[in-house]
Design a protein that fits this description.
The structure is a single chain. By secondary structure, the chain is mainly α. It has one domain. It contains 15 helices and no strands. α2 packs across α13 and α9 crosses α13. The radius of gyration is 20 Å and the shape is globular. Its main location: membrane. This is UDP-N-acetylglucosamine/UDP-glucose/GDP-mannose transporter-like.
């Protein structure tokens, strides 16, 4: 119960501006790394997304270790208790990564997009059961609007695939659980946001390295012929650094906001990218059904953002009302 009280106290401290800026930072970082990763994996045809992720983890470890040694940041030293404190985040991260890759291959892009939106509902449910939160009806309606819009957008490309549906729903569960437990671990004494980032990457990096070696991805990455190109090396290193920035922005957004807000921000960012794709890029196939669905999605996201970032707790509220206010943040 004391941990829950500590969580509630920490969640009311940041101002609305800080919460909003952390969400914008996450959305911007997510968009930029999408562009950089697409350049590395598509334009330069780098053969291993797993090795690219490995580079991002190593960058995270190196940057945070140097910052810790130089006394720029502080977090708990490694000991036997760290694994228990960080568990089950590493397992959830690995499960999220594996099911995400597998489901991408099994489903069409529209169906992948709509089923990924169920992550938002699952995050809300897990916050209720794990973080003991409650949600006002207006916020629930905005979440339902986002999911409904995604379903409308994909309704013209419905194709049932039992294996694909199973994988993507498992991916939703892993993503939602990872978001909620990240929020919970941020309140763990000694870890903080830097400790969560560092030890999560440190625990994952060895299994990822072994997996890439076992599958042959590591050999393909080492033998990649564009390592002699300065432009490719720059883009690869930029992707590694942006991977660290993205992971930091996720933790920062979860620290100042709720896990649900972080998930919604990611979903709204994807809808915004789809809107941009209508006018830029030339690979978007326009249809009124898809456009209307995207618009419904965006309206739900804007509604959620308005309710979240314009919420001002009142000192004269009842205890039940305070609980609703706190959870929105």
């Amino acid at each position: 119960m004391s941990e829950n009280n500590k969580y509630l106290q920490e969640s009311v401290q940041p101002s609305g501006l800080v919460k909003f800026l952390s969400a914008v930072f996450y959305a911007g970082s997510s968009f930029l790394i999408t562009v950089v990763n697409k350049t590395v994996l598509t334009t330069f045809r780098f053969p291993s997304s797993m090795c690219l992720g490995l580079g991002q983890m190593i960058t995270t470890i190196v940057v945070l270790y140097i910052a810790k040694v130089s006394k720029t940041i502080q977090f708990q030293d490694c000991d036997r208790g760290v694994l228990l404190k960080i568990f089950p985040l590493p397992l959830l991260y690995v499960g999220n990564h594996l099911t995400g890759l597998a489901s991408t291959k099994k489903l069409s892009l529209p169906m992948f997009t709509v089923l990924r939106k169920f992550t938002i509902l699952m995050t809300m449910i897990l916050e209720i059961y794990i973080l003991r939160k409650t949600f006002p009806k207006r916020l629930v309606y905005s979440i339902v609007t986002i999911v409904l819009g995604a379903m409308v957008a994909a309704s013209s490309d419905l194709a049932f695939d039992l294996e694909g549906y199973t994988l993507i729903l498992l991916n939703d569960v892993f993503t939602a659980a990872s978001s909620v437990y990240t929020k919970k671990k941020l309140c763990t004494e000694g870890l903080g946001k830097y400790g969560v980032l560092f030890y999560n990457a440190l625990i994952i990096v060895i299994p990822t390295f072994l997996a890439s070696a076992f599958t042959g991805d590591l050999h393909k990455a080492v033998a990649f012929e564009s390592w002699v190109q300065t432009t490719f090396i720059f883009c690869f290193l930029l992707s590694c650094f942006m991977g660290f920035v993205l992971m930091y922005s996720i933790v920062l957004c979860s620290h100042y906001n709720s896990a649900l807000t972080t998930t919604v921000v990611g979903a709204v960012k994807n809808v915004a990218v789809a809107y941009i794709g209508i006018f830029v890029g030339g690979d978007y196939l326009f249809s009124w059904t898809n456009f209307i669905g995207l618009s419904i999605c965006m309206s739900g996201g804007l509604m959620y953002s308005y309710l979240t970032f314009n919420d001002n707790p009142s000192g004269n509220s009842t205890q039940g009302t305070k609980e609703l206010k706190i959870q929105v943040t």
